[in-house]
Design goal:
The chain is mainly α. The protein is about 75% helix and about 0% strand. It is globular.
C-alpha cells in the first residue's frame, strides 16, 4: 500500500465524517461523542497487540526505548523554545491562567490509562505469540474508523476568522521547525542505526501515537512503528509536564510543544494553565499538525538521504 493511498484514505474518512455529521440523528451524534474519548484506548490496545506480534521477529526489541525517549524529549523541548524565541521577538504579551491540581491529576490518570491500554495490548500479543494460535490483525482499518469519528467531531467545532491570525499560525510552524531541528541533532546521535529521513519522519508524529505507530509499520517496518508509537506517547507526557510547569508563563510555547494533542487531549489543560484566550491557538495548531503529520511522515519516509 503506497503512502499516497494511505494519505487519501485518511483524508477521505476525515471528510466523510465532517460532511455526514450534520445529517446524523441526535442519538447517533450523542453515541459518537460518548465513544470518542474511549476509542483511542481501544485503538492503542490494537496497535500494541499488532506491534508486539511483529516485534516478536525482531532482534533486541528493547533497543527501541532509548531512541524513542530521546526523540520525544528533544522534539518537545525544541518546539517549546523555537516558539518561545519567535514570540519573544514579535509579541511579549502573555495571559496568565490558573493551574488546577484536580485537572493535573486527571491528566495523569489519562496518561495512566494510555499506558494500561498499551500494556493490555502487549500482554495479549505476547500470549498469542507464546501459543500456537495464528492470528492476522491490521489496525489500519480501526484507525480509519477513528479518523471518521474525529471528522464528525470537527463538524460541530465553532470556527471564526480570528482563528486564522498569523500569530496563531506561528504556533504550528514553530512546532514543525523545532521538531526538524531536534531531528537533525538526534541524527548525529543515532546515525549509526537510522537514516536521516527516518529520524526526520519520527519527529513528525506530534504526539499522535495511535496514528504514527500504524503508519510507520505500514510504510516502513514494525521496529520503526514501535519507536514511533513510544516516541509520540512520551511526547504527549512531556507536553503535559511543560503545560503545567510553564504554560502559565509561556502559553503559546506550551501549546506548540503539545503538537497535535492540543486539539483534544491537552485542550482542557490549555484552558486551565494558559487561559481561555489561547484556546483558538490550541485548536488551530492541533488541527493543522494533525492534518500535516501523516503527510510529513510519508514524505520523509519516501526520501532517501
Amino acid at each position: 500500500m503506497t503512502s499516497l493511498v494511505l494519505i487519501l484514505q485518511i483524508f477521505a474518512c476525515l471528510s466523510l465524517g465532517y460532511f455526514l455529521a450534520p445529517h446524523l440523528s441526535q442519538p447517533l451524534k450523542q453515541f459518537v461523542f460518548k465513544i470518542l474519548p474511549y476509542f483511542s484506548y481501544i485503538l492503542l490496545i490494537s496497535v500494541a497487540f499488532e506491534l508486539t506480534q511483529a516485534l516478536n521477529h525482531i532482534e533486541n526489541p528493547t533497543a527501541i526505548l532509548p531512541p524513542a525517549l530521546l526523540i520525544a524529549f528533544t522534539t518537545s523541548v525544541g518546539s517549546f523554545f523555537i516558539c518561545l524565541m519567535v514570540y519573544k521577538l514579535i509579541d511579549r504579551q502573555s495571559v496568565q491562567g490558573k493551574i488546577s491540581l484536580h485537572l493535573f491529576l486527571n491528566a495523569l490518570k489519562n496518561i495512566g490509562k494510555a499506558f494500561l491500554a498499551l500494556a493490555v495490548g502487549i500482554v495479549l500479543g505476547m500470549l498469542v505469540n507464546a501459543s500456537e494460535f495464528q492470528m492476522t490483525f491490521n489496525s489500519w482499518y480501526l484507525l480509519l474508523v477513528f479518523i471518521f469519528l474525529i471528522g464528525v467531531e470537527l463538524a460541530f467545532t465553532q470556527f471564526d476568522r480570528s482563528w486564522l491570525s498569523w500569530k496563531i499560525l506561528l504556533v504550528p510552524v514553530a512546532a514543525f521547525v523545532g521538531s526538524c531541528l531536534a531531528a537533525l541533532l538526534n541524527y548525529f546521535i543515532l546515525s549509526n542505526d537510522y537514516g536521516l529521513n527516518e529520524v526526520m519522519a519520527l519527529a513528525q508524529g506530534y504526539g499522535w501515537y495511535s496514528m504514527s505507530g500504524i503508519l510507520f509499520t505500514e510504510l516502513h517496518s514494525a521496529k520503526l512503528g514501535g519507536i514511533a508509537l513510544l516516541t509520540d506517547l512520551f511526547r504527549e507526557i512531556f507536553a503535559i509536564l511543560l503545560m503545567y510547569c510553564l504554560g502559565w508563563r509561556f502559553p503559546r510555547s506550551a501549546i506548540s510543544s503539545a503538537g497535535a494533542t492540543s486539539m483534544d487531549v491537552t485542550l482542557a489543560m490549555v484552558k486551565q494553565s494558559c487561559g481561555t484566550h489561547y484556546v483558538p491557538h490550541a485548536m488551530m495548531s492541533g488541527l493543522i499538525l494533525s492534518l500535516l503529520a501523516p503527510l510529513l511522515i510519508s514524505l520523509f519516509l519516501s526520501m532517501k538521504f
